[in-house]
C-alpha cells in the first residue's frame, strides 16, 4: 500500500515537471520569436507598416479660395496629378524611359538623363490630366510616383483679373491679391505628409506627429461680381468706342468705403496669364499715375471755401478764355468773362481756378490736398500701391500753383481720386477705403475730419450744377434723381517736356447728388478723335450709376428699371460679342441636385455655392463632364459632404 502510494506521488511529480518544461519551452519560443522579430526583422516590418499607413507622397494643401461680398467664387483650386521620380529606386532606366516617353510625350533621351541622376526626387511632368495620370498609375513603374497638386482656376475668366492677379505652378501668388495674401491663401506642407487610416482617408501631421490642417485660408472681398461686370463692360465700351489705349474705373459705397468694383481695360484673364504681356497684368487703377485735370477742381473749391478765401458767389474775371501769367498762357475751352465761383466749376474754367488757387496760396492748397491723401498710399492691400506725385510745397512756383489748381502738374491714381471724393461724400470726414471684408485689417485708419460739413455741401451743390442742362457733365444726368459730377480733360505731359497732343478723359459722379450713396470715377487714356471727358467718360459713368441704382433698388420708379442680377448669377465681362450675359435657367432651388453636365464650370460652381456647398474640381477645362452627387440625388444635409465636379 505504501509502495503504491509512493509510485503515484512520483507519477504526479513527473507530470508536473513535464507541464513545466512544456510551458518553459513555449515561453522560450515566444520570447525568442519576439526577440527575432524586434531585433532582426523590426526595420523591415516597420517599412511594411509604413507602406500600409504612411504615404510618402509629395503633397501640398489646397490654396484658399477668394469670394466676393455675396459669397460668389472668384478664385478656387482644381486637383491635378503630377509625376515625379526617385532615381535611386528605379530598377530599369531604359525600360522606364521608354514607357514614360510613350505616356507623357517626353523624349527618351531627356528621361534617361533624369533617371540616371543620383537624386531622391526629380519632377518629370506637372499638372497632367486624369487620363494620363491613370496610364502612369497602371504602368506601375518602380521609382515613378504620382502626387496631387492644385491648379488655380478663376471661374469668371476676365472678371476682376488684374485685381485678383494669379499664382504660379508652385501655388505661390505672383500678382495682385494672390500675391498680397499669399501667406494666408497658400496651402501648408506637412512634415509627415500623409497618414492613412483603415478607411484610406488622409491625415496630415506636423513635425511632432500632431494632426494639422494643410488647406490655405479663404478671403472675402468687398467687390460685388455683378457691379464689377457692369463696370468692366461700360469701361470696355468707352475705351473701344474712342480708341483709347487703356482705362480704369472704380465704384465705392459712400457709407462704408467699400470698393464695389475696380475695373481695368484691356481685360485680363488670369487663367491664361502666360499668354498676356505684363502691362496687361497691371492693376492700373492703383498703379498708374496720371494728371487728373478738371476732376481735381472740386478739391480746390473745398480748400478755398474751408480757408474762407472765396464764397460760391465771389466773382473772378475769366479773361475771355486766354490769360498770360509769367510768360505762360492758360486757356479755356469756352470764352467766359466774369463768373461767380460756382459757375467757374460749372463751366470748368481753368483761368478762374488758377486765380482762386493763387489767392489760396501754395501752403494752404498743398496741405489740403495732402491731407486728402494725395502723395500718400491709399492703404489698400494692393501690391505696388502708388503714392502719386505731389512735389514738396517749397518746390512750387506761381505757375505750378496755377496749373495744380486745375489738375495739371500733379500725379494721382484712380483709387486716390475715389478716396478723396469719398471725403466729400461723407461731409468732409475722411474714411479709409476697404477692399477686403474678411479677414479684417487690424491697421485700418480711423475716420478724421478734413473740412467742415458746410463746405462739403457747398462743393456738392456746385457739382450738381455741373450735371445741369448747360453744365459740362450734362450727359451723365439720370432722369428722376440728382447727380453731382465733374468732367476732366487733361493734357498729357510729353517725354521731352511740356505737353503734347494726347489727353486723359475722365468723369466722376456722386449719386444721389445730395446725400451720396455711391462714387463712380472713370478715366480713359488718349481717346480719339474726341478727347473730352464729357463725351468719352460721362455717358459710361451714367451707365454704371444707372445699373448700380437699379441693382440696389434705388432707381426712380417711373423709369424703366434695369434688370437686377438674381442671387447666384454672375455677369462676366467678355469681349464685345458677349457683353450681355444671359442668366442660366437651372438654379439651386428644389430638394434635388440639378444636372450640371455640359454646363460652364463658373455657372455650376455658383449653383452649388448658392446651396452652401463648395465643390472640389478635378481635371482641366471649363465645362462639367461628370458630377458627384449625380443629378436627381437629394441635396446632402451635411454642408461638408463631398461635392466633386469633373471638368474638361
From TrEMBL:
Tell me one GO biological process term. cell wall organization
The organism's place on the tree of life at top rank:
Bacteria
Q: Where found in the cell?
A: Membrane
Keywords, comma-separated and alphabetical: Carboxypeptidase, Glycosyltransferase, Hydrolase, Membrane, Protease, Transferase
Keyword Transmembrane helix attached: no
Which Pfam families did the record assign?
PASTA, PBP_dimer, Transpeptidase
One GO CC term of this entry?
plasma membrane
| Taxonomic source organism | Maridesulfovibrio salexigens (strain ATCC 14822 / DSM 2638 / NCIMB 8403 / VKM B-1763) (Desulfovibrio salexigens)
Q: What is the name attached to this protein's record?
A: Peptidoglycan glycosyltransferase
- Root EC class: transferase
Q: Tell me where in this chain the PASTA domain is found.
A: 587-648
**Record-level Gene Ontology MF annotations:** carboxypeptidase activity; glycosyltransferase activity; penicillin binding
E.C. number(s) listed in UniProt: 2.4.1.129
What InterPro entries does the entry give? Beta-lactam/transpept, Beta-lactam/transpept-like, PASTA_dom, PBP_dimer, PBP_dimer_sf, PCN-bd_Tpept
Amino acid at each position: 500500500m505504501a509502495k503504491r502510494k509512493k509510485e503515484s506521488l512520483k507519477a504526479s511529480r513527473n507530470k508536473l515537471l513535464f507541464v513545466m518544461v512544456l510551458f518553459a519551452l513555449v515561453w522560450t519560443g515566444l520570447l525568442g520569436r519576439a526577440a527575432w522579430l524586434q531585433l532582426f526583422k523590426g526595420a523591415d516590418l516597420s517599412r511594411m507598416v509604413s507602406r500600409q499607413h504612411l504615404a510618402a507622397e509629395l503633397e501640398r494643401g489646397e490654396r484658399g479660395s477668394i469670394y466676393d461680398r455675396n459669397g460668389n467664387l472668384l478664385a478656387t483650386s482644381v486637383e491635378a496629378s503630377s509625376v515625379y521620380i526617385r532615381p535611386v529606386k528605379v530598377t530599369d532606366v531604359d525600360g522606364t524611359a521608354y514607357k514614360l516617353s510613350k505616356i507623357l510625350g517626353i523624349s527618351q533621351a531627356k528621361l534617361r538623363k533624369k533617371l540616371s541622376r543620383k537624386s531622391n526626387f526629380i519632377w518629370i511632368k506637372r499638372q497632367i490630366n486624369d487620363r494620363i495620370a491613370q496610364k502612369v498609375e497602371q504602368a506601375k513603374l518602380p521609382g515613378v510616383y504620382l502626387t496631387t497638386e492644385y491648379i488655380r482656376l478663376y471661374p469668371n475668366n476676365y472678371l476682376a483679373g488684374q485685381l485678383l492677379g494669379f499664382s504660379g505652378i508652385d501655388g505661390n501668388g505672383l500678382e495682385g491679391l494672390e500675391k498680397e495674401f499669399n501667406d494666408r491663401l497658400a496651402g501648408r506642407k506637412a512634415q509627415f505628409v500623409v497618414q492613412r487610416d483603415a478607411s484610406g482617408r488622409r491625415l496630415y501631421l506636423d513635425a511632432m506627429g500632431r494632426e494639422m490642417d494643410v488647406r490655405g485660408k479663404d478671403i472675402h472681398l468687398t467687390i460685388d461680381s455683378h457691379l464689377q461686370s457692369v463696370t468692366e463692360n461700360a469701361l470696355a465700351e468707352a475705351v473701344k468706342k474712342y480708341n483709347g489705349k487703356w482705362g480704369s474705373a472704380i465704384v465705392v459705397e459712400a457709407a462704408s468705403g467699400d470698393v464695389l468694383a475696380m475695373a481695368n481695360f484691356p481685360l485680363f484673364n488670369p487663367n491664361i496669364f502666360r499668354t498676356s504681356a505684363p502691362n496687361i497684368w497691371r492693376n492700373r487703377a492703383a498703379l498708374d499715375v496720371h494728371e487728373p485735370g478738371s476732376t481735381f477742381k472740386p478739391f480746390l473749391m473745398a480748400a478755398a471755401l474751408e480757408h474762407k478765401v472765396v464764397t460760391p458767389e465771389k466773382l473772378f474775371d475769366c479773361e475771355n478764355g486766354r490769360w498770360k501769367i509769367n510768360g505762360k498762357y492758360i486757356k479755356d475751352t469756352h470764352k467766359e468773362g466774369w463768373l461767380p465761383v460756382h459757375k467757374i466749376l460749372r463751366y470748368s474754367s481753368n483761368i478762374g481756378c488758377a486765380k482762386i488757387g493763387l489767392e489760396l496760396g501754395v501752403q494752404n492748397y498743398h496741405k489740403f490736398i495732402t491731407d486728402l491723401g494725395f502723395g500718400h498710399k491709399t492703404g489698400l492691400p494692393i501690391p505696388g500701391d502708388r503714392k502719386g506725385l505731389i512735389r514738396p510745397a517749397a518746390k512750387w512756383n506761381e505757375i505750378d500753383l496755377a496749373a495744380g489748381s486745375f489738375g495739371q502738374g500733379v500725379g494721382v491714381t484712380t483709387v486716390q481720386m475715389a478716396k478723396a471724393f469719398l471725403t466729400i461724400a461723407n461731409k468732409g470726414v475722411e474714411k479709409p477705403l476697404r477692399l477686403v471684408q474678411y479677414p479684417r485689417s487690424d491697421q485700418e485708419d480711423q475716420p478724421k475730419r478734413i473740412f467742415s460739413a458746410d463746405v462739403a455741401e457747398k462743393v456738392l451743390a456746385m457739382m450738381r450744377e455741373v450735371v445741369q442742362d448747360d453744365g459740362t457733365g450734362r450727359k451723365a444726368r439720370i432722369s428722376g434723381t440728382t447727380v453731382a459730377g465733374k468732367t476732366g480733360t487733361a493734357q498729357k505731359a510729353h517725354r521731352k517736356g511740356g505737353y503734347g497732343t494726347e489727353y486723359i478723359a475722365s468723369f466722376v459722379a456722386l449719386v444721389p447728388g445730395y446725400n451720396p450713396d455711391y462714387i463712380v470715377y472713370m478715366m480713359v487714356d488718349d481717346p480719339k478723335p474726341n478727347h473730352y471727358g464729357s463725351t468719352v467718360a460721362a455717358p459710361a459713368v451714367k451707365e454704371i450709376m444707372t445699373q448700380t441704382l437699379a441693382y440696389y433698388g434705388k432707381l426712380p420708379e417711373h423709369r424703366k428699371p434695369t434688370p437686377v442680377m438674381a442671387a447666384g448669377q454672375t455677369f462676366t465681362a467678355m469681349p464685345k460679342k458677349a457683353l450681355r450675359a444671359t442668366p442660366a435657367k437651372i438654379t439651386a432651388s428644389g430638394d434635388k441636385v440639378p444636372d450640371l453636365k455640359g454646363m460652364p464650370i463658373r455657372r455650376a460652381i455658383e449653383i452649388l455655392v448658392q446651396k452652401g456647398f463648395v465643390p472640389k474640381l478635378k481635371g482641366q477645362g471649363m465645362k462639367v463632364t461628370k458630377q458627384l452627387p449625380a443629378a436627381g440625388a437629394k441635396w446632402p444635409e451635411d454642408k461638408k459632404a463631398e461635392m466633386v465636379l469633373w471638368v474638361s
